[in-house]
User: What shape does this take?
Amino acid sequence: MHKIRMALATAATAATACTLLAGPAQAASDTVQVTHCNAWYQDHKEDGFFRAFDAVDCYELLGEASGNDANWADGSGTFRGSDNDAATSLLNTGTYAGGINNVMVFSDAGPNGYMGCMSRGEIFVDDLRDNTLFNANGLAMNANNKISGHEWTSWCYNALT
Assistant: This one.
């Protein structure tokens, strides 16, 4: 009987020690994880720009535009040459004024080819590897490193997430 009491006492002491060492239980956090894209948004919200980045989570800015740039491969507009087919994350800090606050992106200059939309309410797409562009026939293409132009619109087709 003495051995059973001793074993129970040892187990109780070990359980108490583990609880004390672990500390109090923590409730799950209700806050949104702060990402680099979110920080960019907070710094630039409502400034009227669309931005594209070469890396995930809005790192390595490729360019920014307050207007349309239908051909990222050419030498005009704010996106040029090597910006073409290089975007991996996007940020929309457009305004609600006038209702033209969504950004359509296209796989081909023009705007042509496969397309996707970044709605104003979405704010950012932190990783285009998880997104799809569609063409007029419903065929799909992964959106990462496939954007060749953009256009501000009041409508949104094939929302990126």
Summary: The longest strand covers residues 59-65. Residues 1-32 have pLDDT under 50 and may be disordered. Strands lie at 50-55, 59-65, 89-92, 102-108, 112-118, 124-125, 132-134, 140-142, 149-153.
